[in-house]
Amino acid sequence: MNFKTMFMISGVVGSLVLGTASAVSAADLEQPVLDADHNWEGLYAGIGVSGQGSGIDFANVGKKGDLDISGKRAGVSGIAGYNYMAGSWLLGIEGSVGSVGFDKTKVVTGLGNVKAKSDWMATMQFRGGYAFDDLLLYGTVGLALQDLEFNSSLGGKYDKTLAGAVVGIGAEYALSDTWAIRAEGLALTFKDDATLNGSKRKFDFADGIVRVGLTHQF
Asked: DSSP letter string over 51-80?
């Protein structure tokens, strides 16, 4: 799976998330809503479970755009943030820390047997959205951190915490005054270089994540 395909999938998943959430609240959307009845403002925290796909693409190796190393797995993350409401509009900040469990070994042209591993990831995101009473639709953008380690059987290794970008879209639905469920699609992207087999290699590293979660508002 190449990076273009990964982001196309993230976009399709995000569209399905928003479409499903809109269907759940179709009755609310039949009439224009000027102000949100549910109060989304305040501090919240919760937990999320996700399906994740990660990939590394080394420059000038193999077919352009194809991932040289890729893998899929499940993850668990903690979520916390704060929302500010202006009428039905929402502005907020959110952080998350979670497990990754990416561990893959593959033969890469010119690099020999490459073992890649990532254990954790973290994000700090700004959120902006609009609330239709119990339904909140939002977009998010921010900073992503993720550990990455790999080594080549032909020589050279890499072990670093990468800093990159995260973007995504999602929906939340209030189950009560304090509990809400959510579904979201996120894309994390990173760039760096590593010395392998005696030469410096630029690479892209990316994650596509579909996450569902439960949060409690304080």
From this structure: EEEEEEEETTSSSTTS-SEEEEEEEEEEEE
Query: Angle at the Cα of 212 (from 209 to 218), degrees rounded to 5?
Result: 125
Strands 89-108 and 69-86 turn out to be antiparallel
- Does pTM surpass 0.70? yes
Asked if 185 and 171 touch (Cβ cutoff 8 Å), the reply is no
Residue 22 Cα distances to 28, 74, 84, 134, 164, angstroms: 9, 26, 22, 11, 31
| Residues paired with 52 in a beta bridge | 73, 209
The C-alpha atoms of residue 138 and residue 107 are separated, in whole angstroms, by 40
Residue type for position 67 = L
User: What are the tokens at 187?
Assistant: 């894309």
Kindly report, residue by residue over 49-78, the tens digit of the pLDDT: 999 999 999 988 877 667 889 999 999 999
